[in-house]
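[Meeting: bench + compute handoff]

Bench side (C.D.) handed over the final construct sequence. Compute side (W.E.) agreed to return the predicted structure before the next meeting so the bench team could plan truncations. Sequence as handed over:
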Amino acid sequence: MGDGAGAEHSGHYFRRFAGLAFVAFATLLLYAPSPALAHGIGGRDAAFVAATKGPDLLPFMYLGAKHMVTGYDHLLFIFGVIFFLYRLRDVLIYVTLFSIGHSITLLAGVLLKIDVNPYLVDAIIGLSVAYKAFDNLGGFKSVFGVQPNNKIAVAGFGLIHGFGLATKLQSLRLNGDGLVANMVGFNIGVEIGQLIALAIFLVIMVSWRRSASFERYAVAANALILMAGFMLIEYQLAGYFGAGKV
């Protein structure tokens, strides 16, 4: 009896912690010193890419996974997507649509050398974060009286996120020898990183939803995501117009 009560007590505090952990995480994003770090590749990683000649699959898989798990703009969007998805089947459908979208444009952007402005792409990625939070808050129904098709929206924004990944790779000195294999490896790594992040998010959400705090903080959490999305948009547009003046 005592053990059961203790387990229930511990579970209660864990669920409260899960909710508070996300709110703290989202708040931290609001005060992050540089949104440009959301999915940049620099330092030793950039030097490695520049020095690579020929296929080097495993290191590029590692870089792809690292890129995703540290890319908080991508992670915020994914978190927003699954926030109110209660069935694993729905989670898999939406994440698959997002993955297909960003895989297409990541590979096409790099291999076909499709040139897009990184500031504008990242601004639209910020918009995707704000869009999903606004949707989670019921904004489209209450303000516009319509509900967009979420599957189309997630797949479409997946294409934009893929271009965001591609622009960061395009800014590096990529060697044409082994490029296809390395980009495939990088993309596989992105998917692995996404699965790792998704597993963590699902553990948090399953636990948090069992707590009364979920209903109390769900609106606040999505409001924070919405604010973070607008901050990402503002930062990237400032960079775009600032760069245009140089």
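W.E. noted at the follow-up: Residues 2-241 form one domain. C.D. will use this when planning the next construct.
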